[in-house]
Design goal:
By secondary structure, this protein is of the alpha/beta class. It has three domains: 150 residues, Rossmann fold (3-Layer(aba) Sandwich), CATH 3.40.50.620; 137 residues, Argininosuccinate synthetase, chain A, domain 2; 35 residues, no CATH class. It contains 14 helices and 14 strands. Strands 3-2-1-4-5 form a five-stranded parallel beta sheet, with helices on both faces. Helix 4 crosses helix 5, helix 5 packs across helix 6 and helix 8 packs across helix 9. The longest helix is centred in the first third of the chain and has 19 residues. The chain is elongated, with a radius of gyration of 25 Å.
Length: 401
């Protein structure tokens, strides 16, 4: 019986070519796995038939939308992750879930190997294969872009044509895009020049802020222990909540970023990201943290966020350290219950009101008036102790130049 290879399948040009290539070079059965993380019907419609036309023996299409938002996007949100100041990690956190679903199918069909269509220059090969190594270390990995002699899009199209595989792809593809419920990314074409202003045609799910409505909209997000649970007082399932905020944020041009980032493989790349709902949630959760977390807890959470973001970016989701950080973050989030109102206007999302039953903010203490709770004269001792090293230095050696 021929060996079985399970392929992470998107239905795009590369994975369409990989199916006949695997059959030709490995003489194997090919089982495709397509995970639905919210990329939309245009990408998934007819994908099973497309896989079979390419020569696949079977194609599993798995609905991962709720799991993606609940167990990956919201955990990354709760940890406060932002990679290199701007990137909210939409592609990064979806890849381990897609790879996990692929491994589960591989177990089911008793596969002999795993395969992906990632290039040898990008981050995704690291993310997929790190997950494979964590969940199925005994299965060999086939990475065609590191093996075959096809050099680019024209070669891949010619190969598909030579095998009689139908495709609607063309040689002229300006942009490489990745979409899920959290975001959509854009790379390639004129974007590759960091000195070039992106064409308006690039953006897909956010309005041009210059053409967004003149009147702002306010949206209130409810949190339960740091997890978003409602919009404007209505409780929603995770994937529905995020889709709603994508719609509201996108209408006002919220969530566009232009990033030159450091890839895990060492090179820099430029990417454009649209993350309307995620941007609203980050703003809202940070405002709730300001209300409910003490100073030292916030500092520790900020440090965790840097480590967590690197883990997610590098595809190291299934690691003990990420699991341990989750426990710490969830403990910190026990007080993050409340409501935050965010104003959406002309590309911006900013907090205008927040409340929580667990708020540490006390108007009586914060007031400039004298109170029994806080005696302003006590501040003198604090200041003298905090500045004692500087006082000693100055008394011994004189004031600094």
């Amino acid at each position: 019986m021929a060996e079985t290879v399970v392929l992470a399948y998107s239905g795009g040009l590369d994975t369409t070519a990989i199916v006949p290539w695997l059959r030709e070079t490995r003489d194997c059965r090919v089982v495709c796995v397509a995970g639905d993380v919210g990329q939309g019907p245009d990408e998934l419609e007819g994908i099973t038939e497309k896989a079979r036309q390419s020569g696949a023996d079977d194609c599993y299409v798995i609905d991962l939308k709720r799991e993606f938002v609940r167990d990956y996007a919201f955990k990354t949100l709760l940890a406060g992750c932002v990679y290199e100041y701007r990137y909210l990690l939409g592609t990064s956190m979806a890849r381990p879930l897609l790879a996990k679903a692929q491994v589960e199918v591989a177990r089911k069909v008793k596969a002999d190997a795993l395969c992906h269509g990632c290039t040898g220059k990008g981050n995704d090969q690291v993310r997929f294969e790190s997950t494979y190594n964590a969940l199925a270390p005994e299965l060999p990995v086939i990475a065609p872009w590191r093996e075959w002699d096809l050099k680019g899009r024209h070669d891949v199209l010619a190969y598909i044509k030579s095998k009689g595989v139908p495709t609607t792809a063309t040689a002229e593809k300006l942009y490489s895009r990745d979409r899920n419920l959290w975001h959509i990314s854009h790379e390639g074409g004129p974007i590759e020049d960091p000195g070039a202003i992106p064409p308006d045609e690039v953006w897909m799910i956010t309005a041009d802020p210059r053409e967004a409505p003149e009147a702002p909209d306010d949206v209130t997000v409810g949190f339960d222990r740091g997890v978003p649970v409602s919009v404007d007082g209505k409780r929603l399932e995770p994937e529905v909540l995020l889709a709603k905020l994508n719609e509201l944020g996108g209408k006002h041009g919220v969530g566009r970023v232009d990033v030159v980032e450091n890839r895990r493989v060492g090179m820099k790349s430029r990417g454009l990201y649209e993350t309307p709902g995620g941007t609203v949630l980050v703003e809202a959760l940070q405002s709730l943290e300001q209300l409910c977390l003490d100073r030292e807890t916030m500092r520790q959470k900020q440090q965790i966020a840097l480590t967590y973001a690197d883990l997610v970016y590098d595809g190291r989701w299934f690691t003990p350290v990420r699991e341990a950080l989750d426990v710490c973050v969830q403990k910190m989030a026990e007080v993050l219950t409340g409501q935050v109102t965010v104003r959406l206007h002309k590309g911006s999302a900013y907090t205008v009101a927040r409340s929580s039953p667990l708020s540490l903010y006390d108007p009586a203490v914060a007031s400039f008036e004298m109170t029994e709770v806080y005696n302003q004269t006590h501040a003198e001792g604090l200041i003298r102790l905090l500045s004692l090293p500087e006082r000693i230095r100055s008394l011994k050696f004189g004031p600094p130049a």
